[in-house]
Amino acid sequence: xxxxxxxxxxxxxxxxxxxxxxxxxxxxxxxxxxxxxxxxxxxxxxxxxxxxxxxxxxxxxxxxxxxxxxxxxxxxxxxxxxxxxxxxxxxxxxxxxxxxxxxxxxxxxxxxxxxxxxxxxxxxxxxxxxxxxxxxxxxxxxxxxxxxxxxxxxxxxxxxx
Length: 161
Fold this sequence. Notes:
7 strands; mainly beta; 3-stranded antiparallel sheet
């Protein structure tokens, strides 16, 4: 079978050109409401999950009482961060990075206070340093005011919150 050349003035459609809309084979079913999204799928015995987040941005959650949630009808499991495998990355204490202490002025207290100093290069993922404290690296000193924490995440980045 041979194809005839296009008639003069006919636009030739070329797929894969920048700026062209992609062909969506599921578009008609979505518009008609006939397409099944993942949230529409149901199986016998299927479990559903729900995530409850703190209503307070940047809040440090020190404990969670899951008793009421576990007692609710139909609840099969209640998980918290303590149940996740990422906890294995955490080092138990930043004590290995403790370098000593020195006096530092804290406006919150209005005077000099003996302040723990940590070696920032020795801190590891999962280490948490509570303020007031100082974290010294070869390039800078990180000041951790009272009431804040400095933690090292899994990418070995320091987070002050």
